[in-house]
């Protein structure tokens, strides 16, 4: 990643590709705002058959990210607070052209409070990672995720602009036809021009298997997009293998 980019700007840019993948969670640990007081947990978070427990979800995330000293894990209690804050966020804010903002709204799911979840983040100069695992407890949320993952064409919306912090960023996206071992999956690559010769490549893999939903986000200023995509898909597949083993 280019020198001179502040840590706060890096974190802000890390959140953009996840949102641009068209299934927005709004709870990336790249944006750790002050959480509201505990106590408003929804009854939708009660486990159903096929769900993992909060401990199991967190263990999957920890195992995937390994012993990297920069790993930060956010467990279910804090995730629920962040998801409550994120559920009313407008997913397509600052996206141009307008038709692309409308497409994003159609295929976005901003309310994932009906889940048992955990997030893990690795902040690294060479390769940033965000791993999110959601064991979905609410049937309506499960249906919305499934619908969002049917997106298969972004012709006319591959090149867009994003307003962030008063800046206009140029993004070029493509859907990648990669094999993820899940019932449904959407993998999208984004090349983001942050200005001042700062170009970032990212891959977001979003996959649903049964009641379990996994998002893997890789971002770097160095690796080739093809290499990044292969690594992200491999990690998503490992996530589902561990989820299956935990049941």
**Structural class, from secondary structure content?**
alpha+beta
Largest sheet: 9 strands, antiparallel
- The low-confidence runs, each spanning 5 or more residues with pLDDT under 50, are 1-5, 25-43
Query: What overall form do the CA principal axes indicate?
Result: globular
Q: Distance between termini?
A: 39 Å
Quantity of strands, as a count: 9
Descriptive notes:
The N terminus is likely disordered. Strand 8 and strand 9 form a beta hairpin. The protein has a nine-stranded antiparallel β-sheet with strand order 1-3-4-9-8-7-6-5-2, sandwiched between helices. The relative contact order is 0.19. It has six helices and nine strands, in the order H-H-E-H-E-H-E-E-H-E-E-E-E-E-H. Helix 2 packs antiparallel against helix 6. It is an alpha+beta fold and about 250 residues long.
Key descriptive features of the protein:
6 helices, disordered N terminus, 247 residues, single chain, 28% strand, nine-stranded antiparallel sheet, alpha+beta
């Amino acid at each position: 990643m280019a020198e001179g980019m502040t840590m706060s700007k890096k974190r802000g840019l890390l959140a953009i590709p996840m949102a641009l993948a068209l299934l927005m969670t709004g709870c990336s640990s790249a944006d750790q705002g002050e959480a509201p007081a505990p106590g408003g947990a929804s009854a939708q978070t009660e486990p159903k058959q096929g769900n993992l427990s909060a401990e199991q979800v967190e263990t999957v995330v920890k195992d995937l990210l390994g012993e990297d000293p920069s790993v930060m894990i956010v467990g279910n209690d804090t995730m629920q607070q962040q998801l409550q804050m994120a559920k009313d966020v407008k997913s397509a804010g600052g996206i141009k052209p307008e038709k692309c903002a409308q497409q994003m709204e159609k295929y976005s799911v901003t309310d994932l409070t009906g889940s048992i979840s955990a997030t893990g983040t690795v902040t690294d100069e060479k390769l940033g990672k965000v791993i999110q695992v959601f064991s979905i407890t609410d049937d309506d949320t499960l249906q919305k995720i499934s619908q969002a993952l049917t997106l298969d064409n972004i012709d006319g919306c591959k090149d867009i602009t994003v307003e962030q912090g008063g800046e206009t960023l140029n993004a070029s996206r493509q859907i990648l036809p990669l094999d993820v071992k899940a019932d449904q999956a959407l993998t999208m690559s984004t090349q983001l021009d942050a200005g001042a010769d700062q170009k970032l490549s990212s891959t977001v893999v979003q996959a649903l298997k049964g009641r379990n939903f996994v998002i893997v986000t890789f971002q770097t200023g160095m690796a080739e997009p093809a290499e990044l995509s292969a690594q992200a898909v491999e990690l998503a597949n490992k996530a589902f293998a561990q989820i299956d083993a935990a049941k």
